[in-house]
Known about the structure:
The structure holds two protein chains of two kinds.
Chain A: E1 2-8, H1 13-22, E2 29-35, E3 42-46, E4 49-53, E5 56-65, H2 67-81, E6 89-95
Antiparallel strand pairs in A: 1-5, 1-6, 2-5, 3-4
Chain B: H1 2-32, H2 50-62, H3 77-105, H4 111-138, H5 172-190, H6 200-223, H7 247-265, H8 278-296, H9 305-333, H10 338-352, H11 361-386, H12 394-412, H13 424-429, H14 431-436, H15 440-469, H16 476-481, H17 483-488
Helix pairs in contact in B: 3-4, 3-5, 3-8, 4-5, 4-6, 5-7, 6-7, 6-15, 7-12, 7-15, 8-9, 8-10, 9-10, 9-11, 10-11, 10-12, 11-12, 12-15
Amino acid sequence: xxxxxxxxxxxxxEEVKDALSELGIEGxxxxxxxxxxxxxxxxxxxxxxxxxxxxxxxxxxxxxxxDGAVEGAVAAIVKTAKTGKIGDGKVFILxxxxxxxxxxxxTGDKAV
Amino acid sequence: xxxxxxxxVRLLAAIASLAMLGAVIxxxxxxxxxxxxxxxxxxxxxxxxxxxxxxxxxxxxxxGDPTPTNIAPVAxxxxxxxxxxxxxxxxxxxxxxxxxxxxxxxxxxxxxxxxAMCFGITAMVSIIWWAVGYSLVFGANFASPFLGGTENFFxxxxxxxxxxSYAYWVSQNIFAIFQLTFAIITPAxxxxxxAERLKFSALMAFVFCWMFIVYFPLAHMVWGSTGFMNGVWxxxxxxxxxxxxxxxxxxxxxxxxxxxxxxxxxxxVEHSHxxxxxxxxxxxxxxxxxxxxxxxxxxxxxxxGVAANAFLTTTLATAVGAFTWxxxxxxxRGKPTVLGFCSGAVAGLVVITPACGFVNSTGAVIIGVLxxxxxxxxxxxxxxxFKYDDTLDTFGIHGVGGTVGALITGVLVDPxxxxxxxxxxxxxxxxxxxxxxxxxVVAQAKAAGLTIVLAVVGTVAIAFVVKLLIGLRxxxxxxxxxxxxxxxxxxxxxx
Lengths: 112, 495
């Protein structure tokens, strides 16, 4: 069981979600986040004072999948979130020890 | 970057050259002004016989015609006060009414682009109106059914004295500002349909051209004393139609232009666009409703009985529209929505606009029902059949609603609520007869048809030129990022 954390451009969320749904991935958690990597921010001007905005809005998408599904899910995210321009984001893959579905008490792969 | 700068310079140059042209023309006309002296010199109030004084005062308080008394009309406190309040109310419809109404419906990354649109148009149109616009609509020296004249360029002669062609008892400077607030909100309505995907530079250039090609001619045709379609006041009107507060001039012109412009622009690149703040939209709608009393009742250009009737009909049609739209939603979709209440109220206001000073309370209730049904169908069914991306339903509500209003006014008109419908000009041009024959709807249809042609052809031509010179749409990346940052360098919400 692995957790996939992907940081992507906000407008790519719909496409990524659709691609993951096609693979049979039924749930995901999404957070609006701010951050930066190599992409530069932009400047905003309020009454003549310039502010540099380093932290750009991104979407953090978290899913937990069985080991066998990891490769396909990551490939789908990378393929759909790619624009080829700087700031497309990153995908992290982390090991997960266990999972429990609260309603049914199911554990392990059955719970995700 | 260089390209945008050049286009801005071009725009400024165009405004400046127009201003200079206006200055030259108004100087030319300054010389022949004294020749136009009145036929009989009016006498001072204090020198008039008591009977004439009494008749004059009665005319003043009832917004009557003082000509038989031979005393020169003056601005009267009550009428002036109401017109100043009305001007404030209509300005409030744009700033902040429409800005909040539209602003809440777009996504948070585009809300400032809506506020900038409303503010930019308010500022620019005010300048154009002062320089040439007022004169082109309400001037007279062209003696043309299609455009006013040059005599009031740069507000020359626009003083606190009344312009008796339009109002015996209201200062002309207040009349000019009242009409300015209409010229401001009309183009601003258009850009609901193009929201989230039209560059600010293109928008301003479009508005500049649209005022000259569509608004000024249309406003003169409908409201000008020599207007082509001014059935109530122009004895020589070729199409004796009626439009009390701007069903054709304001709502049809903006609504149909909006449809064409959104078709030319194409759809937005993203597919998911839920409103970012419906509370804002609710506040905007409430301000629009309150402000609309200035728009409709103010269009009597007096605090008289016609204004009072318009006040009543506006209330009824809006309330019924705001009841009907969400009721349909409740029946067919399961839930009445807040956006449904807002949409029904605005639709009611739009459809009653041309009718408010000409129909009675029963007519207003019928109009409210139609406003809740027909624009609802346009926004929910028509739009999905033809798949045009009318972002905030400007065409569905203003284009369709305005057209419904223009036509239904011809059916529900009640001469008992407005004596001007039987006045000398209305008798001369056939309006009064059309009302008694129940055939007014024919003239109304002609007026609506002419408005659609002018709006469609004008918009196609202007959009083509602006696209060629400046380009209409931002880059795809910019559209994704949102117009607030790419066009204005600001964000609405910094936490």
